[in-house]
Amino acid sequence: MKNLKTLIIIVAAGLFGLSGFAQKQQGAITPDVLSRIQQSVKNDATTHALVNAVSNNGIQQLAANRENEGKLDMYFSDRVKTKGITNQKSSGRCWLYTGLNVIRASVINKYDMKEFELSQTYPFFWDQLEKANLFLEGIIQSADDSLKSKRVEWLMRNAIGDGGQWTGVVDIAEKYGLVPYDIMPNSTQSENTRWMSRLLRRKLRKQALELRGMAASGSKAKALEDKKVEMLGEIYRILVLSMGEPPKQFQWRYKTGDSLTELKTYTPMSFYHDFVDVDLKGYVMLMNDPTRDYYKLYEIDYDRHILEGGNWKYVNLPADKIKPFAVKSIQHGEAMYFSCDVGKQLDKDKGTLDLNNYDYNDLFGVDFDMDKTERILTGESGSTHGMNLVGVDLDENGQPRKWLLENSWGQSSGYNGFLVMTDEWFNEYMFRLVVHTKYISPEILKILQMEPVFLPPWDPMFAPEQ
What we know:
This protein is an alpha+beta fold. It has helices at about 1-15, 30-40, 45-55, 60-65, 95-110, 120-140, 150-155, 165-175, 190, 195-215, 220-245, 270-275, 320-330, 360-365, 370-375, 425-430, 440-445, and strands spanning about 80, 250, 255, 260, 265, 285, 295-300, 310-315, 335-340, 345, 350-355, 385-395, 400-405, 420, 430-435, 455. The longest helix is centred in the middle third of the chain and has 23 residues, at about 195-215.
């Protein structure tokens, strides 16, 4: 009985960490280590006041830097003409709104329109069908790989989503065309994508297992392809019920100045080529990633929206080399696709992106500062959101003071739907900018002819923008 009691005590010590029996583990928090840790907090009036403040209030509100008030005005020396703020609602379609708004600004200016908006739901419908096909093809091509292989794990984890980037806008428009907003307006599901995306992922993962089972049983390529097409029929049904069926033909007219144009019949492709008529293939993506070599071309393997579409490619440049191209584009009235780590130092109420908006260091008495390279390497920072770069404020020497971003969070968000970004914030949290090649210097354009450096799709720097 005595031995049994001893055994019970020893087991309890192992389960509950009783100090008298716990085995010492290198690196564990021992009473001595804990005592040293606790010395970092002084039991004084200042600490008591900070505990009361921080524990009972919002951290961002307490860290707001009063000295930064009024430092930014809302005037810009150069600005692209834009009309109307869009709203992606509860969806991750910022990439699509941003890309379409680049087109939209050009169309408004070209036809002198009072207002105009492209349908986001129309290309999103095809984006989801194409992503489903891309996923199922990836499953077929990797059918001999283990479920635990890196590629298959990545495919299953990223079966489908509503995020994306610029190449998706180009490939969808080039393949399916575009339509005006009122021809295929948003639906409840396109504005609130959570449940639709969740069900699409579940269905695709189920289909993936079925395809892998067929392949393991010796099914030939033709049988797998036929089964995949049948499966895509189920995906198409989900999309039609969620967003409606895309139009094959429609009639449309618009106002230019005070005149109403003639009612015309279009297909989505004729509308895109004849009316929109924007050279989407003439754009190039520039990146500022200090963790990789500059002045090189990079390509992200299997990171695209359409099976036959182009992988995501970009030229990596220092931030100060990217800015002159952005200024030229704005001065010529052309908006750009811009992506960044929007949540960092964002004052959402005032609509400012400023490194000095919040002072967390002084509030907590610890150093949170990291440079851009450190933030990227540790996963602290990456591109999270796409917007349109539409304005710049240049000083007397032609250098940027601040920039203007047209957002897609609605009119009531930020500064009347816009965000104002300091030039310093641009340096730290800008990641991608899509600029037309006519504004880029010849020496940088030569980099596009280089053999690209291939990067894997699971690299954390290349998560889809939301």
